[in-house]
Design brief:
With 442 residues, this protein is an alpha/beta fold. The chain has helices at residues 44-50, 89-104, 107-123, 136-146, 167-181, 201-214, 226-236, 240-246, 264-272, 281-286, 294-299, 319-334, 342-349, 351-356, 390-397, 424-439, and strands at 5-6, 9-17, 25-34, 37-43, 51-52, 56-66, 68-73, 126-133, 149-156, 187-193, 218-222, 254-258, 276-279, 304-306, 374-378, 403-408, 411-415, 418-419. Helix 9 links the parallel strand 12 and strand 13.
Length: 442
Amino acid sequence: MYDKKKIDCIVHAEHLLTMDKDLAVIHDGGVAVHDGKILSVGPYAEITAQYESSVIIGGKDRVIIPGLINTHTHAAMVYFRGLADDLPLKVWLEKHIWPAEARWLSPEFISDAIELACLEMLKAGVTTYNDMYFFGDSAGNATKRIGMRAVLGAGILDFPTAAAKTADEYLEKAEAFALNWRGDELITPCIAPHALYTCSKETLKKAKALSEKFSLPVHIHLSETEWEVKEIISRHGKRPVEYLEDLGFLDASVLAAHCVWVDDKEINLLAERKTGVSHCIESNLKLASGIAPVVKMINSGVKVTFGTDGAASNNDLNIISEMSTAAKVHKAVSGDTTALDSRTALLMATRWGAEVLGLGATAGSIDSGKAADLVIINLKQPHLTPLYDLYSHIVYSARPSDVETVMVNGRVVVLKGELKTGDEERILQTAGSWGEKIKNAD
């Protein structure tokens, strides 16, 4: 008989969806967690035979899944939730959102809003988000305080905002942000030129060069609306994906959000260049932007993932509902009930999400050596009974309120539905105060 290794925590559940390369499902499963990492995954009896811990989380009627990944959002826009709805994207942006940002954005605004966004995402099982916004240091500090993982994109534009006045100033600030956060355990800096219609050829090239200089991900809006495609063809004589290809912009470091209006040639280019796509179906539906050809992209070899977009256009940060909506809508538009099945949907929300963000070695599946980013869902619910297929239940029936416990980097951040790394009441009160200021502004 040998001594068991003492570790920080053992996570136990009746079912364990690893989302690993074999999509292994372990019943009565356990995960050994120590120093923020997954030491071992397997049957609970085997885990407890090798390890012991004073902290055991989970149990009967539970399923463990990897933390969900939101690959495209503007997290701080939670403070603009419901500010301007039922409008076309161009009107929504130019007449409402950009003016609101010009008036309200500041480091304090971002810090407070990020706390609310992280609270919302964590309680819905999202452990990592990919952002595109401003005042990255404030966002990074707030995200770390609450214990969430993030890829934070330093927004770059050709016109002035509260964050910068010129494209060069945005780029300078992006470089400073990258230098400040490189190597952080939870925060990955990212270069985020907004879109082809808001960034010149020179700005796009400089942004890509900056990402290559520091080996950082790139995050960009691409072909979100029919108007955008027509505008780029008018300016450059090429469709958006072809334009980026000619600039030498496309590669595996790039995450393109939306890709609603891409044709077959563009899909093939995205696949060849291994460029990832973030599918934001609920925002695209609400803004009447269209429905991205996701099934065709996946079948062509494009790695498609899920994003919520900002809460000002969605109006929530709920990846569970993105999975459910997408899986149903793509069946309807394709006329194929097997299109975007539940296993593929959960894969898009977990392992593929991590991979397109350059975090494949860290997150996205429950594998030995990866960070312990884990979500425990309570299956003892009327809408989750009886149980035949775990993937089906999570994609078609689960709700954020079913998320019981969330661990990020081995740290329990949500326990029994309550945030353990911040004052939830204070976060909500602060958000309410900001809302009153914004609502009552002249």
